[in-house]
Amino acid sequence: MTGFKEYDDYDALGLAELVAKKEVTPTELLDEAISRLEKVDGTLNSVPLKHYDEARSAIDSGLPDGPFKGVPFLLKDLHLLMKGTVTSFGSGAFKDNVADHDSTLTERYKEAGLVIFGKTNSPEFGLAGTTEPRLYGPTHNPWNTDHSPGGSSGGAAAAVAAGVLPLANASDGGGSIRIPASACGLFGMKPSRARTPLGPDRGEGWGGMSASHAVSRTVRDNAALLDATAGPAPGDPYSCPEPKRPFLDEVSIEPRPLRIAVTDTGPNGNSADAAVSAGLEATVKLLESLGHTVTQAAPAIDPNDMTVAQIGLIASSTALALDMRGEALGRPVAQQEVENITWAIAENGRSLSGTDVARGTLLIHQFSRQVAAFMNDYDVLLSPTLALPPVPLGTVNMDGDDIGAYIDINARYMPFAGLFNMTGQPSMSVPMHWTDDGLPVGMMFTGPFGNEATLFQLAGQLERAQPWAHRRPPVHAAN
């Protein structure tokens, strides 16, 4: 490798292979990633927390011989801790929150050989489908900087799409891996509930709705990273069925003809707009040409019950996060330390009874059974990831006073993803379409609980049939 002009020709596994062959060193890869970040981040604002010294120290101390040895990596600034560094949750209330230990998943990333050199921007507590926290300011979409990169893993997706690195950590409690993957033209897999650990500080997030994994440029990177990090940790409250073989192996396997249900309407009745529907129609045609059977169908879920469940679990969890931060600070968190919508959600959470929270848990378990019964007749459920193309920055205002407007835009923009956080099913966004004005549009494929294998097979087939990794946005480190 000369001058690193070939950096963009390799995904994360490819870069790790170069390290293994001693054609490039981890330090050279880190220097390249840092140089690229510094080139684009003044425009994108994707990585507010830089950990360059920690990354160099990790290399100097000797990296484990994992599958990603020497590959640069970014953590999302939400929940995942790295000893000696700040995890702010995108919130002023946590801006000085220095960890005294690593999260379990952080440990597994390090064991895989990844070199962590920063944390990516996230909305406060991950409560928005965009990434515009008051603390660090908005992250811009590299495809059009007036638009949102999605959220809550918007900083991660913007950095990967802009060519800073080939994959980055992301998490998903209501679509937060899949939404930014769609908005930035990447592949994003939300794994099954409990596929990856959330410890040691949490047994689950948002009542089991949250999962951590990654956004990536290629499908195989995503699969290999899940192989490296999946599996329960001691003390986890539950686990996921073991896969039959490595997920990386699934990517190269042609799937059998699949029974695919398709819908362009979310459980709340909101449908995709014309630009998104055009992508869905083209995707259906491609799937049929590949031998799959596609049928109009969707599970019937009561949208009011979904709202009750989300309020019960998310609002109470938000209130608890602020209360626990107050305990750590030795004083209550003040209203001005968090954004207005966050405060309103927390106040709502404090007003709920234990019965309300228990009802939320009961409802998501009921949804799981309803959708599982539906999936008896189908292998995969297809919909758009988002009902709209990436929205302009400012569309979702977390510092406004109108929580009704916040609820309304979320219902209009992202009606599809949240159900599968409630059911715990694996669900992926695949970059299948770009609008006439150059904005990415992802398609969402969801499988039965525990069956990431079929999704990775299908994603690999789609990637071969209609490649996307070569696409570069206007803001790109190689430009």
From TrEMBL:
Residues 28-455 form the Amidase domain. One of its GO terms (molecular function) is ligase activity. Keywords: Ligase, Transferase. The keyword Ribonucleoprotein does not apply. It holds the Pfam family Amidase. It comes from the Bacteria. Hydrolyzes indole-3-acetamide (IAM) into indole-3-acetic acid (IAA). Belongs to the amidase family. This is Indoleacetamide hydrolase.
